[in-house]
Write a structure and sequence with these properties.
Blueprint (H helix, E strand, L loop, with lengths): L17 E5 L5 H13 L15 E5 L10 H4 L1 E5 L6 E5 H7 L3 H10 L4 H7 L2 E3 L13 E5 L5 E3 L1
Parallel strand pairs: 1-2, 1-6, 2-5
Antiparallel strand pairs: 3-4, 6-7
InterPro entries: Ribosomal_uL13 (IPR005822), Ribosomal_uL13_bac-type (IPR005823), Ribosomal_uL13_sf (IPR036899)
GO molecular function, one term: mRNA binding
Function: This protein is one of the early assembly proteins of the 50S ribosomal subunit, although it is not seen to bind rRNA by itself. It is important during the early stages of 50S assembly.
C-alpha cells in the first residue's frame, strides 16, 4: 500500500498576485464580497485557513460604486469618541462625500476575520477614489464583472 501525505501550504511557498478592479457601477456589497474572496485566497487551490494565502487587490473608481435602494440615505456609520454624549453617526452619502474609499474599505473589513490575520489581509487592499494608481510595476491583472456580478480574470 502506498502512503499518501496531505500537502499543507507553508508561508514561504505562497506568492501573492496583483489584481485591479474597476468599481464603476458595481454595488458596494457585491464588490466587497468578491474583493474579500481575493484577499483571503479562497479562489486558489492552495487556500489554507490559517495562512495569508491571498493576493493584493487594487480598487479603482471607488467614488463611482453604487448602493441599491435607499441605502444612500438610510445606511449609517456609527463611531464613538470616548467622551460622554460622544456617539457620532453619518449617512452613507455624507461619508462618501468626505472619503469615497471608506465604504469599500469598511465593507471588506467586515467580511474578513477580526484578528491579526484579517489585518494582514486588509493591508493588501488599496482603494482609490479615481482611476489612477501607482502600482503599474507589479503588473496587476484586470478583474471584470459579468451581468450576474461574478468576477472574471482578464
Amino acid at each position: 500500500m502506498a502512503k499518501f501525505k496531505t500537502w499543507t501550504a507553508r508561508q514561504e511557498d505562497l506568492k501573492g498576485d496583483w489584481y485591479v478592479v474597476d468599481a464603476t457601477g458595481i454595488p458596494v456589497g457585491r464588490l466587497a464580497s468578491n474583493v474579500a474572496k481575493l484577499l483571503k485566497g479562497k479562489h486558489k487551490p492552495t487556500y489554507t485557513p490559517h495562512l495569508n494565502t491571498g493576493d493584493h487587490v487594487i480598487v479603482l473608481n471607488a467614488a463611482r460604486a453604487v448602493v441599491t435602494g435607499s441605502k444612500a440615505s438610510d445606511k449609517q456609520y456609527t463611531r464613538y469618541t470616548g467622551y460622554p454624549s460622544g456617539l457620532r453617526t453619518r449617512t452613507y452619502s455624507e461619508q462618501s462625500q468626505r472619503d469615497a474609499t471608506f465604504a469599500i474599505k469598511n465593507a471588506v473589513r467586515g467580511m474578513l476575520q477580526g484578528n491579526t490575520l484579517g489585518a494582514a489581509m486588509l493591508a493588501r487592499l488599496r482603494v482609490y477614489a479615481g482611476g489612477e494608481h501607482s502600482h503599474q510595476a507589479q503588473g496587476p491583472k484586470a478583474i471584470t464583472f459579468n451581468q450576474k456580478g461574478d468576477m472574471q480574470v482578464g
